[in-house]
Amino acid sequence: MKAILNNIKGDKVIWAVVLILSVFSILAVYSSTGTLAYRKHSGNTEYYLLKHLSILLLGFVLMYIAHQVPYKYYARISQLALYASIPLLAYTLFFGTNFNEASRWYTLPIINMTFQPSDFAKLALIMFVARLLAKKQDEIEDFKKGFVSIMIPVVIITLLILPANFSTAALIFTTCLVLMFVGRVRFRYIAMLVGVGVFSVALLVTITINSPRLGGRIGTWQNRIENFRSDDSEANFQVEQAKIAIATGGITGKMPGNSTQKNFLPHPYSDFIFAIIIEEYGIIGGGFVVFLYLILFYRAVKIVIKSPRNFPAFLTFGVSFSLVFQAMVNMMVAVNILPVTGQTLPLISMGGTSIWFTSIAIGIILSVSREIEATQETETTPKNAEHVIA
């Protein structure tokens, strides 16, 4: 254990933020899975707690491994990961398990565990776009050599995810647009890509309306938007229960484990876990969680500023923006600022692949931070040594 602690490098504030978010996750998941445990495991509330702890533990292992890998290797890994994600997404789209009329995952053979390729593809695409932006900085303003080569993988991945999970596709697409803007891609090219995206969605809607397998998903999107705009409490059951949780939580909350709305919310341990956190820890607790994500992004931006090369800078920004953006979307849904999206709260919501790929993403940020620290130590050590000799 001591050897492992000695090898933990990188931004210590980010490590602390991850640890605190994990504590929130354990408490919130244990509290919110009570009803699920009584329904599926005869009241064994420790079942989901132990399962979640094991998932988080593996997440920390993956984070540790990822932060030990020199960031330069992620450029090559991004290529392999992107090429692997395309057939995985295509297979899941047509043969994956249906949930709410959407093919979002499939079950891995032998180990019988569900796998969400969209989580894998999201990280792979962000790494790949960061690589292309760094590689093409000298010709980034050229339409064909700079923009088109970056646009093609973004469009392919988002179109493969879009029929099954619109919110994830939109999140990935937006992240790539912001990353391209930071990477000095011309704004008019980005605006054109937005137009292509809108056209693609319109085309997909036209096609899927006439598709027996995918057509029902359009109705789901339409219902969510219409329900968000209406005042029908029955149609907005999830949101109404989340509002009650937030209102009854008040400033200081009901204290851990005392949530009542967890018994009424359909998914209090994933999509609406932020509402449960506010109910039990109050506005103070909810505000503290928001603050932790902002601190995570702030520390990531500091790493970006210190990065000696373009690739680690773009990589760190893209990965951190994606995580924090997803967190903000989840929390805005819980407080009824956005329609229901189905996005989880990174590192807090119960889940498998979402937690693992989030852990890997944070490990990548820490990898960049670790090498920056090592470089700074190398540069300062000779000066200190000369000072001592003198």
Task: Throw out a few tags for this protein.
single chain; mainly alpha; 390 residues; 72% helix; disordered C terminus; three-stranded antiparallel beta sheet; 3 strands
Report what the structure shows.
The structure is a single chain. This protein has helices spanning 2-7, 12-32, 34-40, 46-68, 73-95, 117-135, 143-161, 166-182, 187-209, 215-229, 237-249, 273-306, 310-334, 353-389, and strands spanning 97-99, 102-108, 113-115. With 390 residues, it is mainly α. It folds into 2 domains: 1-68 and 236-296 and 337-390, no CATH class; 71-229, no CATH class. Strands 1-2-3 form a 3-stranded antiparallel β-sheet. A hairpin with a 4-residue loop joins strand 2 (102-108) and strand 3. Helix 7 (143-161) runs antiparallel to helix 8 (166-182). The longest helix is centred in the C-terminal third of the chain and has 37 residues, at 353-389. The chain is globular and about 60 Å long. The two termini are 39 Å apart. The model is unreliable at 385-390 (pLDDT under 50).
Task: Chart the SSEs and their pairings.
Layout: H1 2-7, H2 12-32, H3 34-40, H4 46-68, H5 73-95, E1 97-99, E2 102-108, E3 113-115, H6 117-135, H7 143-161, H8 166-182, H9 187-209, H10 215-229, H11 237-249, H12 273-306, H13 310-334, H14 353-389
Antiparallel strand pairs: 1-2, 2-3
Helix pairs in contact: 2-4, 2-12, 4-14, 5-6, 5-7, 6-7, 6-8, 6-13, 7-8, 7-9, 8-9, 8-13, 9-10, 11-12, 12-13, 13-14
